[in-house]
Amino acid sequence: MTTLTDRYVDATLRRLPGRQRADIEKELRTAIADAVDDRVEAGGDPAAAEIEVLTGLGDPSRLAAGYADRPLHLIGPALYHDYTRLLAVLLATVVPAAAAGVGLVRALRGEQALTLAGDALSAAFTAAVHIVCWTTLAFAALDRLPRLRPGAARPWSVDALPARPSRRARYAELATLTVVTALFCTFVLLTPVVSTRADAAGEPIGLLSPWLWETGVVYAYLAAGLAGLGFAFARHYARWSVPLALAAALVEVAAPLTLIWLVATDRVLNPAFVAAAGWGPDTTRWIGIGLIAASSFSLLHTVTDGLGQARHR
């Protein structure tokens, strides 16, 4: 009758190369028999002792992988951190760049807003899938073929630790951000009453579309900017937590996405101001492209800054 030990050994050997099976079978059977004998001599039941020993050895597939020195993971610990770092950098740079590039091309062609947004999202998704797929395949190959790896990395030392930003540098950063935000909000709020163009009655013609004020979108946009400033102070002075980081990321992403949507739907500039200034279609198109490029850069900065914050916490 086939014993549990026979079944266990057979299940293990099936997963091993033929040249290794004879030696490993002898070693494994001897180890199991010795362990069972030890438990029987201590007063245990032979059948129960066999079950206990085999249970302690664990899954035969894992035991076979250990004998064959074959990993059961896709990417091992030696390369995992490099893999995640490179993947994060590629996703944070290539994906927004692909979406922004497609968006710019579609904007130059005068595509509708829904078409522009759909093509940009599709390009971002496709780029992300390719990045994850090929990066994972490359690192899986490196993990299984050590000869393909570059030379040994330089040993880590405390000299590699990043320096903490000084208090003065943080104050300067917050002061600069506060001044820029205040100037931008002031400029936007004054555009309806301060203008270089006036109508026949002498009233100023606002640079921005009246629709922004009628719907309140401009106030929501400025509120997002002020909330982003508040989160910048919270990052330095409050206890930074995951919910706070997620809320900050949503706020910091909302403003550039809103601006891209407004440019795509041609709701940023006031048509009356454009006509009074004598701007042609090319001028307004290039202004829109510049705003989309600036918004895309802001999105990229938000993603990379978030990754940096997460990496140092």
From TrEMBL:
Q: Which NCBIfam families match?
A: perm_prefix_1
Q: Which UniProt keywords apply?
A: Membrane, Transmembrane, Transmembrane helix
Q: Name one Pfam family in it.
A: HAAS
Q: Which domain of life is it from?
A: Bacteria
Q: Which residues cross the membrane?
A: 86-108, 120-142, 171-191, 211-232, 244-264, 284-303
Record's protein name:
Uncharacterized protein
Which InterPro entries does the annotation name? Perm_prefix_1
